[in-house]
Specification:
Largest sheet: 9 strands, mixed
Number of strands: 22
Radius of gyration: 24 Å
CATH topology of the largest domain: Aminopeptidase
Strand order of the largest sheet: 3-4-5-15-6-16-20-18-19
Shape: globular
Helix content: 25-40%
CATH architecture of the largest domain: 3-Layer(aba) Sandwich
CATH class of the largest domain: Alpha Beta
CATH superfamily of the largest domain: Zn peptidases
Number of helices: 10
């Protein structure tokens, strides 16, 4: 934790101050520069563990942005959110959801202030690195039927071999019907696998470098091996598709089918303090945002959770954060209130007054490779939320960082800082929103094995992020 900004003026008492300084609210007490677990009561630890069970249950089903939106809608409808329509009553405290093309979800709790006073937005993305099927994926090789794939987001190819994999997504047919497919997530389902070369026969491949141990074109899962009467395995697969799903080979051109790890979430460690889960980048932040906004009653500023697609590939397309969707939605809300008096300056004023937490996970310090970080600027699992201080012009401005520190400290949320070693960079969806003149800060929590098939998070960090977002929505300043 960056405690140097918290030094008392009386430097003589510095040591005692650092040892004893605490802050608390609502029963939470956190000391500076120590694990977030320390200072939690037994009941508060129980809150952390209960929250993590809800998170694991949700993540066991929300493998892609499509399934995230579907699962999230079930939860938020049960928490009083209704679809935003032209006839929706925008009274303070009203709760709405809006879905953009099934792949982006926005949750809204109307505040007591005018919309032109600005919105409080938590933005996060719901897509994760994965394999996707090509438009004509099915082919046959050496008696096996396989799917050709390409990569969504940055992965290390070798991490995807010798694992149980699932096929999830949908196929859209010319008649307008949609066929949902999910094979491999249920314990009774078959799984798919990308086999590696055994050490007995890989001699000619041992000189490959890290990123080419497995090449992209080699990431093709085996999907079948029994041929049809004409000795064609691929034709047997097409016959299965026709019988089981009513789809033909050409229908796969208009499909969104992903290959994802089939493993379910598991606790890590004797103490069960951590979780191994596929897709935590960045469904972790999106889940905590969903939970935080669901607990808002009538905030002063209208609360928004903007859970968006396609961050892993550059925030592109009309479901990514570079689109005009969110600004158009804000404009629509303002217009509903202002009516014929609406003009563009209402929107511009609202954008200028809007404050945003752009939340995303990031790598944490690794016990076997600590040298990739500078220890004083490295985020550690179990130490809470980390402010991303990128440098190079990518940081939030200092006054907005201080504003965020204020509500985190008031709520007793543990926080730390993260700056990459030797380079300045900034990312996730914050750039998309700051260019609209919103005030944006990036913070999240650290993971181990980020972008892998089974990333590791700390349960207390996940809960701290949820509490940070709740405090952000409530902070009336």
């Amino acid at each position: 934790m960056n405690f140097y900004t918290r030094l008392p003026i009386d430097l003589f008492s510095y040591g005692l101050f650092i040892a004893m300084l605490t802050f608390s609210q609502a029963g939470y007490t956190q000391k500076v520069d120590q694990p977030a677990w320390v200072g939690l009561s037994d009941s508060q630890k129980d809150e952390v563990l209960t929250f993590s069970e809800d998170y694991k249950d949700f993540m066991s089903r929300a493998k892609t942005e499509l399934s995230f939106v579907a699962e999230a809608l079930t939860l938020v409808k049960g928490n009083g959110f209704s679809e935003l329509t032209e006839n929706s009553d925008l009274r303070p405290g009203a709760r709405f959801y809006d879905v953009n093309r099934d792949r982006t979800l926005t949750l809204i709790v109307i505040g007591s202030n005018s919309f032109t006073d600005g919105f409080r937005v938590v933005g996060a993305h719901i897509d994760s690195p994965r394999l996707e099927l090509k438009g004509r994926p099915l082919y046959e090789s050496e008696g096996f039927a396989l799917f050709q794939t390409y990569r969504h987001g940055g992965i290390k190819n070798y991490q995807w071999v010798n694992l149980p994999l699932a096929l999830v997504g949908h196929v859209d047919k010319k008649d307008g019907t949609r066929v949902h497919i999910s094979v491999g997530l249920d314990s009774e389902d078959p799984v798919f696998i990308i086999p590696d070369l055994s050490p007995h026969v890989d001699h000619d491949y041992r000189d490959r470098q890290n990123r080419e141990v497995i090449k992209g074109e080699e990431l093709d899962p085996i999907v079948a091996s029994i041929p049809d009467p004409d000795n064609s395995v691929s034709d047997a697969v097409l016959a299965f598709f026709s019988e089981e799903y009513g789809i033909e080979e050409d229908d796969l051109v208009s499909a969104e089918l992903a290959i994802v790890p089939a493993m379910g979430p598991r606790d890590v460690g004797f103490d069960r303090s951590m979780m191994a889960i596929y897709g935590q980048d960045d469904k972790l932040s999106s889940f905590t945002a969903m939970r935080a906004i669901s607990e808002q009653d009538t905030p002063a500023y209208t609360a928004v959770a903007f859970l968006v697609d396609n961050e892993e590939v550059g925030n592109v397309n009309n479901t990514g954060s570079n689109s005009d969707y969110l600004v158009d939605l804000m404009s629509e809300l303002i217009y509903r209130r202002a009516g014929d008096e609406y003009n563009d300056m209402h929107l511009r004023k609202a954008l200028r007054n809007t404050r945003v937490v752009s939340s995303d996970v990031n790598p944490g310090i690794h016990p076997a490779y600590p040298g990739v970080w500078e220890a004083g600027n490295a985020p550690r699992l179990g130490y809470g939320v980390n402010f991303k201080l990128y440098g190079g012009g990518f940081n939030a401005n200092s006054e907005f960082i201080a504003w965020n520190r204020a509500y985190l400290d008031a709520a007793g949320v543990s926080w730390q800082t993260a700056t990459y070693k030797g380079r300045a960079s900034g990312g996730t969806i914050g750039n998309s929103l700051s260019r609209r003149n919103m005030e944006v800060i990036d913070y999240g929590v650290p993971l181990l094995s980020i972008h892998s098939t089974y990333a590791v998070s700390s349960k207390v960090d996940v809960h701290m992020l949820y509490r940070a977002m709740s405090a952000f929505y409530r902070y009336d300043n």
